[in-house]
Q: What sequence folds into this?
């Protein structure tokens, strides 16, 4: 039976029927996987934002070595395509994290939120400017 309220147990089914934890070891490994996946989500979001900045018509970051390579239309199209691919992959990871949280296991919830926090600290909090606004349609950002 699926839980509809938060519960605290080492027995959890996550995302698919074959991913079940029946021991503390498998539960801790599952929580570690959730933490790493949510930190990786923040890393990919940082990469996507940087690609979007580099492919914008007027780059806001002055990097001499990269500006000469971005000048061509093909390079801009390639960066735009790479940004779209990263957006799709990142959206998929974000929705999988949301579904993991919907297992209603308290440990999974804490692991995902902690992973997002750690990922934000290491990958996304480096010198952000308040005027820089990048659209994001995912709720897990």
A:
């Amino acid at each position: 039976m699926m839980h509809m309220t938060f519960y605290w147990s080492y027995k959890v089914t996550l995302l698919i029927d074959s991913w079940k934890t029946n021991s503390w070891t498998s539960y801790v490994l599952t929580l570690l996987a959730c933490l790493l996946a949510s930190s990786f989500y923040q890393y990919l979001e940082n990469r996507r934002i940087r690609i979007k900045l580099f492919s914008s018509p007027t780059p806001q970051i002055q990097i001499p070595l990269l500006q000469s390579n971005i000048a061509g239309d093909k390079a801009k199209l390639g960066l735009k395509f790479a940004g779209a691919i990263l957006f799709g992959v990142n959206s998929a990871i974000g929705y999988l994290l949301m579904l993991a949280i919907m297992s209603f296991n308290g440990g999974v919830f804490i692991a995902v939120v902690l992973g997002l926090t750690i990922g934000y600290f290491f990958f996304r909090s480096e010198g952000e400017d308040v005027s820089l606004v990048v659209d994001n349609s995912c709720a897990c950002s």
